[in-house]
Amino acid sequence: MLQEWLASLPLDRIPYNAVLDLVNNKMRISGIFLTNHIKWVGCQGSRSELRGYPCSLWKLFHTLTVEASTHPDALVGTGFEDDPQAVLQTMRRYVHTFFGCKECGEHFEEMAKESMDSVKTPDQAILWLWKKHNMVNGRLAGHLSEDPRFPKLQWPTPDLCPACHEEIKGLASWDEGHVLTFLKQHYGRDNLLDTYSADQGGSSEGGTLARGEEEEKRLTPPEVSHGDRDTQSVRPPGALGPRPALPESLHHSLDGKLQSLDGPGAHKEVGGAAPFLGVDFSSLDMSLCVVLYVASSLFLMVMYFFFQVRSRRWKVKHHHPAV
């Protein structure tokens, strides 16, 4: 949606304040807004504060490590063609700079300093990230951030990949060759679904389930279906049809308003809000201020007259004329 809006503007450059107003829903343009309700597809937790963004970030970088290994031509022209650590180092810098959990970022940086330099091939990058993800799962198992419906396990579990598990001298171990094959299949581009709807029930059609969906199917009781939990469509924006083009009059209107944003101190809201003391107030905000001001004034006047009358009565009651 944001990309379509940017592409539709007849401007050579977009002022930063214009984009900021758009993502903060201050540009009241019909049909262009960011929803306040976040619905994750493969990382929806049992509560809104669980899974979600951290889960999706892990999935993204697992997918990127697999893509860099299976389709190295994707890095042509980026300057990272011969760097097996390209995805890992990018993830490292992203987590260090942007990830909101400082403690999590510090733990990831410790793991990176410890062994990331040992990665010499793209396949080793896939396995390195998988091992570290399992280390994090082991450390956070039972933590308050763990979703009880999606416990943090050593993944893949035996029911997902029996060949990935082996026993050596009575001790459970990983068969990394089979793990690598499983990860490439699971996070490969042929296994990605670009459409999704919760009311379609199980999504086994069209390939293997994504990791979060596999866990959900395994951990959800048979009598509870996806449709019973939430019948609202959660198709990603890319799965929707093309949005209608903005009318020419709106192009010219946006052109003038966006250019006015580019000047110093000329930050204005498209929705008709008036800046006052450095803060944008809408007409509703101003109306509420006036109502509260009038109500406060009336209250003070009533209290003033009440105490005036009470004071006079007290003086009359206790007045003793001289004899």
Write the layout of secondary structure elements.
Elements: H1 2-8, H2 16-23, H3 53-70, H4 86-98, H5 102-115, H6 122-140, E1 165-168, E2 171-174, H7 176-186, H8 211-219, H9 226-229, H10 248-261, E3 274-276, E4 279-281, H11 283-317
Antiparallel strand pairs: 1-2, 3-4
Helix pairs in contact: 3-4, 3-6, 4-5
Essential attributes:
FAD, Sulfhydryl oxidase, EC 1.8.3.2, two-stranded antiparallel sheet, mainly alpha, 323 residues, 11 helices
Element pattern in H and E: HHHHHHEEHHHHEEH
What class would the helix/strand composition place it in?
A: mainly alpha
Q: What is the CATH topology classification name of the largest domain? A: Four Helix Bundle (Hemerythrin (Met), subunit A)
What is the number of strand segments? Answer: 4
Strand percentage, roughly?
A: under 5%
Share of helix, binned:
40-55%
Shape: elongated
Number of domains: 3
What is the straight-line distance between the termini?
91 Å
CATH architecture tag of the largest domain = Up-down Bundle
Q: Biggest sheet: strands side by side, in what order?
A: 1-2
Low-pLDDT sequence parts: 197-247, 249-254, 257-279
Q: What do we call the CATH homologous superfamily of the largest domain?
A: ERV/ALR sulfhydryl oxidase domain
DSSP summary: helix tally: 11
Largest sheet: 2 strands, antiparallel
